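Q: I have 183 residues here and want to know how they pack in 3D. Can you give me a structure?
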Amino acid sequence: MTTGVPLTPTALASAAMPEAPPPALPDRDVERFVELSVALTGFDAFDLHGTGMARFYLRTVLDQIGDQPYHDFETALEQAGLDPEKLQGEVAQDLARAIAHLWYLGVWPPLSATVHAELRRQVANTGFTASPEAYVQGLVWSAFHGHPQGAKAPGFGTWAAPPPGAPELPPPGRHRRQAGDGR
């Protein structure tokens, strides 16, 4: 039985060769990325490593902007004393925003059109969820003491206690006294 597709050595070789995974990132590069991310997110290195996403996020950043623009960003942030508010230039500021966005929401946001054009990247300038796990590990949940719905339960009975920092509510049946209401 024939399929109409000639089975040449080249066709067989290309069909059998899946795309190679990207090379592993050195630990020192991941540690440096976490150090920069501490400055961008306000979370400490322990919390960032605790997400399990550092290596994956660094790979995502490199895939989206390229090695040289990332290294230029590292240098710019170092020259700013690891203070993102002191970053100069639209590219560095937009990359800082994008990396923080990635950590907090697990989403790579679209870059501004001018930054994307300046980077001369061939990848589409669209936002995307980096992975299903990125949503679950987003820093946003820790920032407001919440949990990702449907992915991580807050723990048995935790609904019975008010969230940290919540104002104290009066007992049921009692009205809160308002200023000037005379009660």
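Q: Anything worth noting?
A: Residues 90-105 form the longest helix (16 residues). The chain has a mean pLDDT of 84.
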